[in-house]
């Protein structure tokens, strides 16, 4: 199928959700800008970042919604976050157990906004560079991810060596969305009807440049 020169670029809206301070802004910055921001302030409402990626000859605009973790900075925006969302990234901090146990609240909020089951979701444990401070064991996170049918990524927005792993989070979702949406007449039943991938952990050795799904 020939690509027309002026074919519009598709846009996928991906929201990043989780407690304040887990590193949502840093992760989205790493993916869209390629660097770790020196200093961040708590996000108010939402910050938009975007990156155009090319997959199998198609240019896709990934619109990342970096949402606020603090209740007071997000309450007026929540409806906007979930409207027409294509994929959801849930983030916790591997050095803070409460950010992991709160995931169930974030998942409930997402479910409460009627996000269709075909909308892919992934789980991200961030700040893995703080090796001596880890509170959330991988085994526990993996169990949780499995129970919720999500892939698990453990990564660091800070460590440059982990940047491919950060990219893999978003590229994995784009690959899934692209596959889902290229199947005609499957949009309403495609995702749940597909075989569900097993949750697994991506380490530095895997997922290089290719679709990790
Ligand atoms: N060591 C380490 N620190 C990180 C990492 N990611 C983020 N941080 C730090 O964690 C703090 C919070 O990061 P943010 O990205 O602003 O957190 P957030 O989730 O966007 O917070 P809200 O906007 O309030 O919801 C900052 O001091 C970051 O420098 C990481 O991978 N490793
Ligand atoms: Mg933020």
From TrEMBL:
Cofactors named for this entry: Mg(2+)
SMART domains: RAB, RAN, RAS, RHO
Top enzyme category: hydrolase
Gene3D superfamilies in UniProt: P-loop containing nucleotide triphosphate hydrolases
Catalysis performed (reactions): GTP + H2O = GDP + phosphate + H(+)
Protein's UniProt keywords contain Metal-binding: no
Biological processes annotated in GO: Rab protein signal transduction
Region (Disordered) residue spans: 186-213
Superkingdom of the source species: Eukaryota
Subcellular location, principal: membrane
A cellular-component GO term for this protein: Golgi apparatus
E.C. number(s) listed in UniProt: 3.6.5.2
Membrane topology annotation: Lipid-anchor
Cellular localization per UniProt: Endomembrane system
Key words of the record: GTP-binding, Hydrolase, Lipoprotein, Membrane, Methylation, Nucleotide-binding, Prenylation
Family designation: Belongs to the small GTPase superfamily. Rab family.
UniProt-recorded name of the protein: small monomeric GTPase
Species of provenance: Corvus moneduloides (New Caledonian crow)
Recorded name of the encoding gene: RAB33A
């Amino acid at each position: 199928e020939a690509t027309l020169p002026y074919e519009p670029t598709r846009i996928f809206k991906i929201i990043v959700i989780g407690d304040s301070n887990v590193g949502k802004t840093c992760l989205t910055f790493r993916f869209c800008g390629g660097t770790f921001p020196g200093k961040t302030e708590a996000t108010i409402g939402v910050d938009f970042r975007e990156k155009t990626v090319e997959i199998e000859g198609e240019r896709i605009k990934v619109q990342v919604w970096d949402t606020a973790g603090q209740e007071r900075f997000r309450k007026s925006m929540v409806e906007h976050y979930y409207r027409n969302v294509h994929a959801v990234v849930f983030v916790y901090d591997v050095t803070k157990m409460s950010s992991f146990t709160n995931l169930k609240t974030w998942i409930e909020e997402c479910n409460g906004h009627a996000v269709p089951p075909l909308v892919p979701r992934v789980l991200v444990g961030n700040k893995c560079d703080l090796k001596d401070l880890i509170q959330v064991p991988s085994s526990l996170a993996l169990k949780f991810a499995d129970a919720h049918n999500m892939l698990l990524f453990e990564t660091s927005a800070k460590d440059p060596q982990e940047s491919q792993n950060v990219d893999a989070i978003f590229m994995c979702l784009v690959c899934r969305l692209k596959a889902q949406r290229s199947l005609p007449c499957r949009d309403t039943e495609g995702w749940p009807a597909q075989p569900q991938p097993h949750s697994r952990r991506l380490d530095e050795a895997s997922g290089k440049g290719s679709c990790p799904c």
